[in-house]
Write a structure and sequence with these properties.
The complex is a heterodimer of chains A (about 190) and B (about 190). Chain A has about 190 residues and is an all-alpha fold. Chain A has helices at about 5-25, 30-40, 50-60, 65-105, 105-110, 110-140, 145-160, 165-185.
Chain lengths: ~190, ~190
C-alpha cells in the first residue's frame, strides 16, 4: 500500500505513468496489463475488480482509453491532483517521442533495425493482452451469471469477427443487459 | 500564430470529444479534419502516423496530436494540440467514475457497471486477438495463407506468454527481450 505523504504518492504516480506510457506500444487496451503490474501486483493499491471497473468507465467515456485510465488510477491514489499528475506523466512520453518522430520522420520509417525490434514487440504485446484477458474472463465467470458470460463472448465475437463499431456495441449491449437483469430479477440481483 | 494555435485547439478538442470507444474510432475524423479540411497533413503522412502509432508508445490520438501540432506550430503547437485532445476524456471519465462511486447502493448503477465489465473483457479480448493476428500474419484479416504465417512471431508470443504466466516475469522485461529477439531474427 501507498500510505506515505501526498508528495510521495504524486511522485510515485508520475513515475508509474511515465513507465506505463513508455511501454504501451500501440495504445488502447495495451495499458491494462501494464497498469495491473504497477498498481496491483507491485503496490496493491486497488483490486483487480477495481481495475476492471475503471477500464469499463474509461472505454465508455470519449477520448483515448490510456489517458482516461491514467486519470482514474490517479484519482484513486491522490484525488483530482493525482488525476492531473497521472495524465501529465502518461502524455509526456508520446508527446516527446512523436515530436522527435516528426522531426526525423524519413530516417525512422525506413530503418530496418527499428522495424525488426518493433515487430518482435508486437508479438509480445499480443501475449501480454491475452494474459490479462484470461484473468478478466475468470473474474466474469466467477460471478456465475450466464448473461454476463454470454455478453462477454457476444461482444468479443461482434468486435473481433464482425468488426462492429465499439460505441454502438457498448450502448446497445449495456442497455440490453440492464433491461434483462432488471426484468428477470425484480430485486436487482 | 495565435490563429493557428486556436485552430489546433478547437480541432483536436473535437477529435478528443467525439472519439468514443477510443483508438480506431477516431481515424475517420482525423482524416476529415486534418487532411481534407485543414491540409495540415498529407495523405501519406496521415497513413504513416497510423503505422508509426502501432509501433510507438501512446494512443493514436495523442500521437496524431503531437505530430501535427509540432509540424504546424512547433513544440507549443504540439502541447496545445495534445492537451486539447485529452481534456474531454479526462473530465468525463472522472465525472462518470465519481458518479458511480457515489451511487454504489443503487441497483441500476451496479447492473450497468457489471454489464460494462463483461463488455470491457470482450472488447479487450478482441483487441488482443487482433494484435496477435497482426503479429502472426502481417494484417488483421481472419483468413490468411501459410506463406503469410510468421513462425518467429508465433514463438515470441508463445514464449512471452509462458514467461508471463509460469515465471511471472514483468511486462518491462518481456518487451525488452522481444525487442532483442525481433532484432536478432528480423534484421
Amino acid at each position: 500500500m501507498l500510505d506515505r505523504s501526498l508528495w510521495y504518492r504524486l511522485f510515485w504516480l508520475f513515475r508509474a505513468n511515465v513507465i506505463i506510457s513508455c511501454l504501451a506500444v500501440g495504445g488502447g487496451y495495451v495499458i491494462i496489463p501494464l497498469i495491473k503490474k504497477q498498481f496491483i501486483d507491485d503496490k496493491r493499491v486497488f483490486s483487480f475488480d477495481d481495475l476492471m471497473e475503471m477500464a469499463a468507465v474509461a472505454q465508455s467515456a470519449p477520448g483515448a482509453i490510456a489517458i482516461n485510465m491514467a486519470a482514474l488510477t490517479g484519482y484513486r491514489i491522490a484525488g483530482f491532483i493525482g488525476a492531473a499528475v497521472s495524465c501529465v506523466g502518461s502524455i509526456l512520453p508520446p508527446l516527446i517521442i512523436m515530436s522527435v518522430v516528426a522531426i526525423c520522420y524519413e530516417q525512422l520509417v525506413n530503418n530496418p533495425q527499428v522495424n525488426a525490434a518493433l515487430k518482435g514487440m508486437t508479438a509480445a504485446i499480443a501475449a501480454l493482452m491475452i494474459n490479462v484477458v484470461i484473468d478478466m474472463g475468470k473474474n466474469v465467470v466467477r460471478n456465475k451469471e450466464a448473461l454476463g458470460i454470454f455478453l462477454m463472448l457476444a461482444v468479443f465475437a461482434a468486435a473481433f469477427v464482425f468488426n462492429v463499431n465499439a460505441i454502438l456495441l457498448i450502448i446497445v449491449s449495456v442497455i440490453t443487459y440492464t433491461l434483462f437483469v432488471r426484468i428477470c430479477h425484480k430485486d436487482g440481483a | 500564430m495565435m490563429d493557428t494555435l486556436i485552430d489546433l485547439a478547437i480541432n483536436f478538442w473535437k477529435i478528443g470529444t467525439f472519439s468514443i470507444g477510443g483508438g480506431y474510432a477516431i481515424i475517420a475524423l482525423i482524416e476529415d479534419l486534418l487532411v481534407d479540411q485543414y491540409h495540415w497533413l498529407s495523405l501519406k503522412e496521415y497513413t504513416d502516423i497510423i503505422t508509426i502509432s502501432q509501433m510507438t508508445p501512446g494512443p493514436l490520438a495523442i500521437n496524431a496530436s503531437s505530430f501535427t501540432g509540432l509540424k504546424v506550430a512547433g513544440f507549443l503547437g504540439a502541447i496545445v494540440a495534445t492537451v486539447s485532445c485529452v481534456i474531454s476524456g479526462f473530465v468525463i471519465s472522472l465525472v462518470c467514475y465519481v458518479f458511480f462511486n457515489h451511487h454504489r447502493d443503487n441497483n441500476t448503477v451496479m447492473t450497468v457497471l457489471r454489464g460494462l465489465k463483461s463488455i470491457a473483457t470482450g472488447l479487450i479480448g478482441a483487441a488482443g486477438s487482433g494484435i496477435l493476428l497482426l503479429a502472426l500474419t502481417g494484417h488483421n484479416k481472419l483468413s490468411f495463407t501459410v506463406a503469410q504465417f510468421d513462425i518467429w512471431a508465433f514463438f515470441i508470443a508463445v514464449g512471452s506468454f509462458i514467461l508471463l504466466r509460469r515465471f511471472k516475469i514483468g511486462p518491462v522485461w518481456i518487451m525488452l527481450i522481444s525487442a532483442v529477439v525481433g532484432l536478432a531474427v528480423y534484421a
